Amino acid sequence: MSRPVTRPRRSGDSHPAPAPGRRAWLEQIMGMPISIHLRGEDLDRVAAQDAVGAAFEVLREMDSVFSTYRDDSDLMRLRRDEVRISGCNPLVEEALRIGQEATVLTRGAFTTLLPTGEGDLAFDPTGLVKGWAVDRASLPLTELERISFCINAGGDLLIGAHREVPTAGPGAIAWRVGVEDPLDRRRVATTMTLTRGAVATSGTAARGAHLYDPRSGQLVGRPGSVTVTGPTLLWADIWATALFVGSEATSEAFATSATDYLSTAL
Amino acid sequence: MRRIVLWAMSTVTVLVLLFSYSTSRGSSAIVAAETRQVTTTSKTSDSTGSSSGSSSASSTDSSGQQPTGDATSDPSATSSDTSDTSGTSSAAKTFAGDAVLTRFGNVQVQITVQSGRITAAEVLQVPWNDRHDQMINSAAVPVYNEETVTAQSAQIDVVSGATYTWEGYTQSLQSAIDQANL
To answer: Does residue A16 belong to any structural domain of this protein?
Structure first.
């Protein structure tokens, strides 16, 4: 299923060895390239490779349950009424619950009921599965002593570290995150530095992409983006999507209920 | 599991330098029609080389003149970006990947290679008319660096941007990389 995008460096070519203390892995899962980056000490240890493998395994499991591209996923079988929700992986019911909670919290600006090609609505938790999957996949990585990690899933990312890696001061491992300029993708509009936390960006590029606004039933095509940072990628991503399409009520809800999260609109 | 050491796809945010790479594939016509931010130059001789190409490519973006990586960057690539006036190794070439048919339409990726490194990746074709616009909401270029992405003189470890999600992207990218013999 996953196909590597890149290949190992060949020895003897002209490239220098990677800077010490960084390694990265990349797989294609959930229809997108997902990379895991490690920084810290002794990155070649077996435990690190095992943890990365376990993280990718979580992502693949989430894909097998929630993929809308795979006819045999629990989600697609549910949508074809081949199985009841009680017969699905318990994650499906949890996704439904999270989606309902998100709809309430965002004042209707986030939904897991999306229009199908046939004009009706179907349960599609795609908008929350990615962030949730990355949050779950990060758990084995937090067990790696003296290591900080970043999971980058198609431009949404989660940074974390072992609990003994300091969050500030000497010994902290900080990641400089560039936020793409939605109007000119060559440029980085702003940067932020994190030692822990999620960064999710939702929006449209200059090339006419869209996000679905559940209240109007329309696709929002205005240019721009919203970036949300906070403890989990699940909720950062949900809020980024909601704030991009949402109204003033959504912004007020964000300010009052998502106090651990910060947003930046571009 | 498959584990992959990443190629440094450095400085995607700078220096988008596309020489018209005339091949039988006729890719340059697609480039002109489809890509943003493209400065197509005619086939440039080695003596004028990348420096003249750089200045024209970056005329709308002064930061494009600063493709210097951090201290770990390949020094040869850095020098070729800025001052190299000799040698064919510094000439940027583009390689268009196969157009990969997904259920929503074709996806095609093109890379720019200079001195053995990918300096830019461009999306030539993407499917826009699909119900998965919530997922597939931009034509972003994935930036995966094991070292650094340098943008506007600030060192960047990772880039957050609107989601680029579609089947076929990496398949097309892989075929472009194959063509470039990287």
So the answer is: no
Residue A254 CA from chain centroid, whole number: 19
Asked if B144 and A154 touch (Cβ cutoff 8 Å), the reply is no
State the distance between the two ends of chain A, measured CA to CA, in whole angstroms: 35
Instruction: State in words which class domain B32-179 has.
Output: alpha beta
Cα–Cα distance, A53 to A37 (Å, whole number): 12
How much is the pLDDT for A117? 66
- Tokens 């938790």 — which residue? A125
> Tokens standing for B14?
């700078």
Percent of chain A at pLDDT > 90 equals 50
Nearest chain A Cα distance for residue B16, angstroms: 8
Q: Do B61 and A186 touch (CB under 8 A)?
A: yes
- Residue ranges of chain B with pLDDT lower than 70? 1-90, 100-107, 117-123, 125-159, 161-174, 181-182
Q: What is the pLDDT of residue A237?
A: 94
**Within-domain flag for A254:** yes
Could you state, in order of their start, the residue ranges of all structural domains in chain B? 32-179
Residues B176, A81: Cα–Cα separation, whole Å:
41
- Whether A87 and chain B come into contact, CB under 8 Å, resolves to no
Residue A69 has pLDDT above 60, yes or no: yes
Interface contact A155-B16, CB threshold 8 A: no
- Between CA A202 and CA B164 the distance in angstroms is 10
B35 SS3 class: coil
pLDDT tens-digit profile of A152-201?
887 889 999 999 999 888 889 999 888 877 776 656 788 888 999 999 98
CATH number at residue A257: 3.10.520.10
| pTM for this model (two decimals) | 0.61
Report CB contact under 8 Å: B174, A52.
no
Using CB atoms, pick whichever of A2, A37, A201 lies closest to residue B2.
A2
pLDDT of A151 higher than 90: yes
Chain B contact set for A199 (CB, 8 A) = 160
Structural domain for A176, as ranges: 2-11+21-265
- Tell me, yes or no, if A10 comes closer than 8 A to chain B by beta carbon: no
- The closest CB to that of B6, out of A6, A68, A191, belongs to A6
CA atoms of A22 and B178, how far apart (whole Å): 26
- Tell me the shortest Cα–Cα distance from A8 to chain B, in angstroms: 5
Note whether residue A130 is domain-resident.
Answer: yes
Per the structure, the count of domains in chain A is 1
Q: Is residue A182 part of a domain?
A: yes
Query: What residue type is A125 in one-letter code?
Result: P
